[in-house]
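#data-curation
PF: Archiving a pair of folding outputs for the training set. Convention for this channel: one message per protein, sequence first, structure tokens after, nothing in between. First:
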Amino acid sequence: MGAADQGGARISAARRLDLARLLHRLRTEAGMTQAELARAVGVSRPTVARYETWREPAGVLWRTARDLAVAAGGTDADVDQAVALVREDEGGWWDGHPGVPGWLGPLLAIEDRAAWTWTHATTWVPGLLQTEGYARATHRAQQPPVARTVAEEQVAARMRRQRVLERESRPMVVHAVIDEAVLHRHVGGPVVMRDQLAYLLAVAERPTVTVQIAPYRAGAATLAVGHLLLLGRARDPDIAYYEQRDGGRYIDAVDELGAAVAAYTAIRRRAASATESRALIESIWEAT
């Protein structure tokens, strides 16, 4: 990798994902190995591999993206797309935001462009469906604890993230399966929790939001998957994301995405219907 590539543009994860998939598709359709394409363009094989990997943090050059697309036999439209993906990125609100850790930025970039998300929550109410009070309680409960100012920046970022639900032309379509235990856990105390439960009932009235509860009777199968998000712009998901304590695991391989979809589908089938789930949330709200 040359110094020029090191100083290339740092484009968003969403654009980087599109670029990686475009260049990988062109190369495989051409029947070329990474080494063969590298020789054709005059770059190293690791450079080709880097341009086909969306999570690589180093910058990219539009000229290199163009040359890779041309050498792999891309059409004029393919080449133009490769160049545009590098040259027309203005960044997003999450870039440099003090409440967004580095590992979360790629998820927010992809979420910002996604048409839909499926989420399975076993510990917290999904971030897109949290009230401000609930979000504040989750961030103040971090271990090790963070300064109050840091927690407030994180809360602000979570609230800003929820604007995808309010997009005028294409609001995010959300399907959430929430473990019943999440509803019983008094995050922030009973007042905060009652507000959160009431908000779940309200937001589930939207035509773009579906909330299902995985009741205790669903057994252990729903817990085996963990906290999972799937995000997509078309019918198939772009990525899956498994949330972990200090970060997350991103999945973009076709076979692994298929497994994640199958796991979520199985959980959804075990969950109560939307109508039954509403009744369950109401009963827990009344008892809180």
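PF: Second:
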Amino acid sequence: MGDHRSPIAFVRGKQEACSASADCMLAMRPISHHDEVVVFTANKGMRRAFMALALCAMTGCQPQPQKVSESIAKEPSDMRTTVPLVRKLDPNQTGPIELEFDVPAWADNPSPPLFIGVRLTNVDPAAAADGDSTAVSDAADRLRAADVSAEVHLYRIQESGQIAVSLQRSQWKTGFGPGEAVVSLAVPADGLVPGLTPADADVDTMEAAGLLPPGSTYREFAKYSELEFAYAPSVPSGRYRATIRFVRNREALFKENAALINSELIIAYPRQGK
């Protein structure tokens, strides 16, 4: 087993220690959008949990809603037009990807955050059988290192026309790992995002939409990994349009197919604090 030392989060110079339990992690105090978060993790196995905590701080986590809109109903995953949704990425499609979709109202948060990015899924039955939990995370690391850039835009559709929604992106100051800091940067008007960063989709809404098996075990969760291009901290319910155009190194998204790792576009809510 690896090192089980407690992780430590530093927020504007204030040290907070926490045990490795999920309850403790989620009980840590909310962090302002303007705070710089430095996360120290004990080992690679715990990395994703503390990444989620840091990203939760950046997107302004709200209390977990008691119930989301009934419009988050199960339908074929590649036909969903309600967040959360995924779309298969076609290696032969080189032009912009455009999606229109609805953001339903949440019971406890009328303007939840959402992110736009890529979901990786391990479809290798042999890996699933032996509980391989590293193939997807390793693929995610390779995509981050590949600097897959894209132009990302989000618009709210209204009767008077469409209104651009301001987007932000997360940046790990020195890469990703123990002792590194994540900050939030505004996406410029041209929508250019220089690469993918770690993300963590909200489990409850993904399960409700049929995009995760209900009551997933750790082994089942290990088949998936999400990466983010950009996010919107506050999105009121309504109709939206997203456009994504890959600018550089899009081929890296499809190299993973040879390793039985599927790449999909994802628009989803980030994991919410309890």
